[in-house]
Write a structure and sequence with these properties.
homodimer; alpha/beta; Aldehyde Oxidoreductase, domain 3; about 15% strand
């Protein structure tokens, strides 16, 4: 098989065969197909797409480029959640312990943040000592013991995805449904879970700008998961405002701890609610409950009882994290409203970029994160705003980073005379 | 400037600025922009195109990636011809000496054959000893002395084009108007000529399958040349049959020598006529004549008088080629017609592929050519054919190569009960 002919075939809009896709991925993973042919193929896929059969073949080839996790020693239903990413999106830290507390295994393999969206690993690593680089044996052992464990991608799982993702990032080929689908699903299938809840976000802070696009992506992702015999549901949720009170790694851990300790604050409401809704879907997927309502009740009980907090604390301990040593930053400035009215619009991507400028996030994979930097949100969509009210607090240890971030943040919200009527956290659940 | 952002801009269908194009080409030439970003950009250009301003910027950037030829010591009009390529397309060998014999300089920098189309350098190098790797000083000296000289691309002229062309070849990004235009025109402008005649071919053996596509390409090429203040005309000519009697390097030289020696054979007619028509355009571009007819008369006189043959012989001598030592192959087989009627259709690309199988051409730049291999055409479009008539003779020194080539050739022509009416060598001249 000639790589150039395969590129040409896709360029001309034809579907690739399973053998052709397998050939490309295998040769690329072992380094015999060069980056320049892969990037040309990725761009051709960007323009010409892939049908469901091709996308499934691509997922399969990427999945088989490495090892899969043997979860057979976990007797019972195993479920994970994947979010397409957003700002302040910290639900994993809550739903892992909540669902584990309801007797369902949640073995989570997470990624790092890139661009304006955050990553679970970075949040956890803001806890001093927390080790996300566990062996797979330890990963299974901890999950068996307390029901959940959070680790990072290992180099043995889907190596093709790692290589391709790095290439997509520098060749403007990230925004492609089949490439996104195969990347997400190959990793999730490699984890060996039985069920998967997808949190597919739309809005100004999401990859998908509209609910329709998010739904389209969700259906494609679900088709692949179901093709592998997995139970998959999708929650289509809004990223039209940052989730909850904080964005920034240590700050987000703090927010989750507060929620798990039952501290109530309206600014926490969305984080708490989305975490419980996703938990309910995860629990219900296991077949343990007769309705989502019942599953939601189980999840909420687990949270309110303090069991989720206990499991989270235990997980930190088992993964060498010292929760009591969590550090916050020493400097802050406030950004205030120039006018009165209602906060009706956030440009969440711009907020994410401000986060990068504060070093709470990464522009490139090689960037070093400041775990104590962050942005605090004092107003949410439809909050009344009086001139002079604080909209954001910028937190960090290097005050000289505030200036540029503040400029971005100044442009990132709009105050108008009246409320908007159509804001909702969860748009739809696809089962 | 970030290469990934430039790729994204083109991918999204926006025009690139001159600075962006300059940045990409400069960085790529010096190796700081990697192949994988260039190939992604090339694929984006394949899909989204480039407008005339962008194409001119690309040509300029590629031109300035290397040196240009200083032709200032050639006092008088300097003209070149470029053909988009075909099978048996050997007119350069005739028109160079013809136009030079009319007092106009023809400094020709030519390429090698790739794929099903032949290259002037390969034809000349079938003459034992012929050295196409002259220094630029010698190139100008020989041109000054006898009016014409044929050399190959040097590494100093348009190095960006060389690097990009090699990449396009393996990433399915050859067939793109702006990329074709910039590649051709940057090299031709670097040659320092005042005028250029483009032989833009269409048909089953050409890159452009229809006359309309050829005309579209011609207009784009002309716009760039004119943007550089060059006089440019385009001849839109048919590649619906191989040109003349032979395809294959030594055989094509032989055909040109026969024509320059005034041997008349109906199988030579198209080669002779196209060479004279292109010569006439080149002569007329110089301003030496009042009409194309007058220019054609000058060209034909030069050919018939034997002056063109003298100049060609002299050029071989000055470039160390021993014309009298021209060798031909020892083996041949014939391919005969199965039915009677008229030959009305050639699949010229397939004939070119048969030529590659005989080693008369290259599939990859690293392939070694057999200069004595070739295909002889006994019938042309609208020739009457009787069952058992010879259609092709395959020539070569390795008889074991004949089998595969013959299979291709068997599928490469069609005999039908009646003639076709619409075959013409030159469709149009664009001035």
């Amino acid at each position: 098989m000639l790589a150039a002919e395969i590129i040409k075939k896709k360029r001309n809009g034809h579907a690739l065969t399973e053998d052709e896709i397998q050939f490309v991925i295998t040769e690329y993973t072992k380094g015999s197909l060069p980056d320049y042919q892969m990037s040309a193929l990725l761009m051709a896929i960007y323009f010409k797409g892939m049908d469901n059969v091709e996308t499934l073949s691509l997922t399969k080839a990427m999945l088989h480029s490495g090892i899969t996790v043997d979860t057979s020693s976990l007797a019972g239903f195993k479920v994970d959640k994947h979010s397409t990413g957003g700002v302040g999106d910290k639900t994993s830290l809550i739903l892992g312990p909540v669902v584990a507390g309801c007797g369902i295994y949640v073995p989570m393999i997470s990624g790092r943040g890139l661009g304006h969206t955050g990553g679970t690993l970075d949040k956890l690593e803001s806890i001093p000592g927390f080790n996300t680089q566990q062996s797979l044996e330890n990963f299974i052992k901890i999950t068996r013991e307390i029901g959940t464990c959070f680790i990072g991608q290992t180099k043995d799982i889907c190596p093709a995805d790692k290589k391709i993702y790095a290439l997509r990032d520098v060749t403007a080929t990230v925004e492609s449904y089949p490439l996104i689908c195969a990347s997400i699903m190959s990793k999730k299938i490699a984890e060996g879970v039985d069920g998967l809840v997808l949190d597919v976000k739309y809005g100004s802070g999401a990859f998908m700008k509209t609910a329709e696009q998010a739904e389209e992506l969700a259906l494609k992702l679900m088709a692949i998961g179901q093709g592998y015999g997995k139970k998959v549901v999708s929650v289509i949720s809004s990223m039209d405002q940052p989730l909850g009170r904080f964005a920034g790694n240590a700050w987000e851990v703090f927010e989750c701890l507060e929620i798990m300790k039952n501290v109530r604050n309206p600014l926490y409401d969305e984080t708490r609610e989305l975490s419980l809704q996703l938990s309910a879907q995860m629990i219900h997927l296991s077949g343990k409950t007769n309705s989502i309502q019942e599953a939601y009740k189980l999840a909420e009980d687990c949270l309110v009882s303090g069991r989720a907090f206990e499991i989270f604390s235990k997980m930190c301990e088992l993964q060498s994290g010292k929760l009591n040593d969590l550090k916050f930053s020493s400097q802050k400035i406030e950004l205030k409203a120039d006018e009165s009215g209602y906060l009706t619009h956030f440009n969440v991507e711009q907020i994410g970029v401000a986060g990068i400028l504060l070093r709470a996030g990464r522009r490139q994979t090689s960037d070093i994160i400041h775990p104590t930097s962050g942005i605090e949100f004092h107003k949410k969509i439809n909050s009344p705003v009086a001139k002079g009210d604080v909209i954001y607090t910028l937190h960090g240890d290097e005050a000289e980073l505030f200036k540029d971030a503040k400029e971005y943040l100044q442009q990132s919200f709009r105050v108008t005379p009246s409320k908007i009527s159509n804001h909702q956290l969860i748009k739809k659940v696809l089962t």
